[in-house]
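Protein in question filed below.

…
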Amino acid sequence: MASDTKGVNVIIVGAGIAGLSLGIMLERATDVGIRYTILERAHEFKTIGSSIGLSAQCLRVFDQLGILDDLKSASTNIVGSIYMDQELSVIGRVDSSFCEERYGYGVRLFSRPDLMLALLRHVPEEKIFWGKKVLGLVQDSEGVTVRCADGTTVHGDIVIGADGAYSAVRQSLYETMKKNGAVLKKSETSPLRFDQFSILGTTEKIDHLYKFPEDECKMYNILPSTQEDIYAYTMVFEDGRLGWRLSGPSLARHIKDEANFRFSDWDSESIDDLKRHLSDAPAPIVGTVGKLFEHTESISRILIEDRFYETWWHERTLLIGDACHKVVPAAGQGANQSILDCICLANLLYELPSRDGKDIEKVFTKFYELRAPQARKAVSGSKRLGQLVGAHSFIGTALRTFVLKLMSGSLNVKSLDAMYAGRPILNYLPQIPLKGSLPDNSKPMTFGTTSLGASAV
């Protein structure tokens, strides 16, 4: 029997993948009185972003939630990756066609807008408040109050910062800790490196401009051979659109300062400069980067620095997802790690005994204990992968070629087995049969007070 949370009120800051996923999970936990509100700084939904891959680690819980078919209809099954040099010669292939048989679910490829819209459909409209830019928060023994730029305040028992790499909640959390005499590590407060970033987008339907290089959906990567080369990937959707992303040190020259990078859209001059600089660079399937720009309505940018923060919580405030462990898109793990955070947190909040600060502290402590080791591991792995794909020295490119050959064989299965052996679900919902031939080796994400057992990583 679930414990009585006495109507705990959760404020989720950020209506991204983590915030919406947590909202969906808490929506199914109302039998113990959990209430939630999502605050989003944007005034409306924005169709920005490129492609996102979700693996069996996350798809299983969406299956349990009953929304997997909806997600499948908004996505494409991806069966592998192809790696090429700057001359577009294939230097490696990584197969993922076996994932559904082995792990129960294939790897689903989404455009970010499509995934966001699919998740939005399962969160009641009245639970999301748009145009709520967080300026600060105040915590005390009675709860926490969030102050927004529009002059409003929102009061709750817990604040969950799911507001990304430049988390306003994290900054407010640090300010509170400093006022309370806490000493933060330099790594916690140092700015993200804005000299490492990607530009990305999703094109309109342009299948009339190209033919599929192969019959099934794959990710096509162009790897750099010099520091000036652009690392590019394109993801082919079944409906004829392309998700694309460009990275590389040479892009940094187009950013004047960090403030512009953080808060402004590209102005027309910068867009024109980028087009001139990159228009002739190769982009597999369509031919050149210029064609990607030509057929992409909204171009956005993201930081690509991996970062693990040691401090995830203080008093009644907790960080999840990119706000506390940022994994670059090249690793394909950012969204998956965020959703794993949500599964763990939802399970623990369901068992929250009361709204008392000491009980909340126990939940946050347990959450960090369960999730931090895996998140740290994901960040570390992402850093190594980023160094590998971005290598441009003779030794670096030789090592990359060697590793890609290994990944084209049995090492690929072993590495995915290690990653997907844990496919967690929610404790408080009816369990679903384990799919796939690989056993689930997850550790429990629970205090052990619920009668249903769920797996975790």
The longest helix spans residues 357-389. The chain is about 35% helix and 20% strand. Residues 9-43+131-190+307-389 form a domain with the FAD/NAD(P)-binding domain fold (CATH 3.50.50.60). The first strand starts at residue 9 and ends at 13.
